[in-house]
Amino acid sequence: MVFSVEEIPKPDPAPPLRVGLTFNLKHASLSDSEDEQAEYDRIETVDAIRAALETAGCRVELMEAADTLPRALSGRPVDIVFNIAEGSGGRGREAQIPSLLSFLRIPSTGSDETTLCVALDKALSKRLLATYQVKTPRYRVVHPDSRWKGGLSFPVIVKPVAEGSSKGIFNKAVAENETQLKELLEENFARYRQDMLVEEYIGGREFTVGILGNGAETRVFRPMEIVYLDQESAYHIYSFQVKKNYKTLIRYDCPAAIPEKTERELMDTARKIYDALECRDFARVDFRLSPEGTVYFIEINPLPGLEPGYSDFPMLAERNGMDYVALVRGVLNAALKRHGLEFCLEQG
C-alpha cells in the first residue's frame, strides 16, 4: 500500500512514565515534643516534587507511607517510585518503604534499605567508615541502662544515635563537664528512648556536600558552608532551633571561602563515603573543619530533605547552578538509568 506524505501513519505516542511518590506527611500531633515530626514533609514539598515531575510528562500518583500503602501499590501500578518517606519507629524506619518496594520488585529512587539503616545509625556508620580511614570525632555510645565511663575530652556534644533532621540536637546539646553530661543524657534518654552518641565537640567551621548520580556520572557539588552569625556563642551547633530560624541565625555560603585544597578534600571525602556506603542517586554529607584545618566527618544523609527554599540539598544544588526542577528530575533520571529503564527526563 502506498501512502501520500499526509497519509503516513504516525506512531502512537509513548505512554507517560508512571511515578509513585511515597512520603510521610506532617500531621497535627498531641505530643509535647516539638521535633517529633521534624523528618516528615509538608504537603507543599510533596506538591513541588510532583510539579517538577509532571512538567516532564510524568504521571504522578501520591502515596502516603501509611498502613494503606501496600494496597495502593498493588492497586495503582507504577513504573518507578520516587521515595522521600522517612518511615516510623525504630532505627530501621528509613528502610521500611525501600524494603517493601524491593519485596514487590518495584524500582525506586535512592539508596536501598541496607544503606539507609547503616547511615541512620550514626555510630554504626562511623565504625564502618573508620575502616576506610575516614576521620571522625572521638565518640562513645551510651546505653540508657549503662553509666558514663569517660574516655573523651570535654566539651562533648550529645545526640540520639539514630535520628535525622537535627532531632534531639538542641541549643544546649554541649556538655562541658560530667555533671552537665549526666543531665543531658538523662533528659535525652527520657525523651527519645534510645542510645546516645557522645562525641567530642569540634570547633571551627561547618560544611555540607551534596552528591547526585551513580558511577562515572556522579556529580559532587562544591561544599556549602553554614556560617553562624552569632560569633559570641561559645559553641555553634546546627541545631533544631537554628534550622527553624535559619534566616536570622545563619547564612549559607557556596562557594565557600576556603582554599582549593580544602574544598577538594571535602569533595573527595564525601565521594569516598558515598561509595563506601553504596549510596545511590543522591545524598548529603556533613563535615566539620577544625581551626587546625582537619576535616572531620559528622554524618551522612542518603535521604536528604527536598523542601524548596529550606532544605540544605536543594539549596546547595541551586548555588551550584542546578535549579529545583532540574535537581528532582536528576534524582529520578539517575534511578531510571540505574534500573535500566528506557525513560529519560530532560534536566530542565
Automatic annotation (TrEMBL):
GO annotation terms (biological process): cell wall organization; peptidoglycan biosynthetic process; regulation of cell shape
Keyword hit for ATP-binding: yes
UniProt-listed Pfam families: Dala_Dala_lig_C
Main localization of the protein described in the UniProt heading: cytoplasm
Molecular function via GO: ATP binding; D-alanine-D-alanine ligase activity; metal ion binding
Cell compartments where the protein resides: Cytoplasm
Species of origin: Papillibacter cinnamivorans DSM 12816
Xref: InterPro entries: ATP-grasp, ATP_grasp_subdomain_1, D-Ala_lig_Van_CS, Dala_Dala_lig_C, PreATP-grasp_dom_sf
Residue ranges of every copy of the ATP-grasp domain listed in the record: 126-333
The keyword Ligase is assigned to this record: yes
Alphabetical UniProt keywords: ATP-binding, Cell shape, Cell wall biogenesis/degradation, Cytoplasm, Ligase, Nucleotide-binding, Peptidoglycan synthesis
Similarity-based family: Belongs to the D-alanine--D-alanine ligase family.
This protein's name: D-alanine-D-alanine ligase
GO cellular component labels: cytoplasm
